[in-house]
């Protein structure tokens, strides 16, 4: 805990004075981010760091494996879907980015099975992505291919939300997929023909 509190003190001493006007404006006028990011909860992949963003620029949704479930309103708990609804319908973001990454434990749990200790929630959560395994052949690079395929699945599932589909069709919203490689720091864009490095 002490490390966290020391970090807060550095924030108050070093960051707050330089960024105070930004925070005060955000407090006064509210948030109006242009981008909604769906990213993995992995502690090694921070979307704000990867994209060099500042507070107020991105509305960030994080979960295991950066998965977007298909549109399915019911009485269940839908944290990711609720965040999408708020970001698109209330904040009016102009783009959604799905950010997958290398060495994703959630994708590994999908491919190899969840650890024994994570069967209550992780296993059923990643099971929604099982269909991608049909398109990912066995081989040494299966996890890498699966990481990209999961991003594509999330992009496809975004289009099952009627108000996302309508906004995209009207030219008011864009959707993009990326995969970040922790080893190299390289960001790849998910294109029609696979991954393409961002230069």
Short description:
The chain contains seven helices and six strands, in the order H-E-H-E-H-E-H-H-H-H-E-E-E.
Shape: globular
Q: Structurally, how many domains make up the residues?
A: 2
- Residue stretches low in confidence (pLDDT < 50, at least 5 long) are none
Mean pLDDT: 95
| Largest sheet composition | 6 strands, mixed
CATH architecture of the largest domain: 3-Layer(aba) Sandwich
Order of helices and strands: HEHEHEHHHHEEE
What is the terminal separation in angstroms?
39 Å
**Structural class given helices, strands, pairing?**
alpha/beta
- Order the strands across the largest sheet as they lie in space: 2-1-3-4-5-6
Which range does the strand content fall in?
15-25%
Q: Features of this protein?
A:
single chain; 199 residues; alpha/beta; Beta-carbonic Anhydrase, Chain A; 2 domains; six-stranded mixed sheet; 7 helices; globular
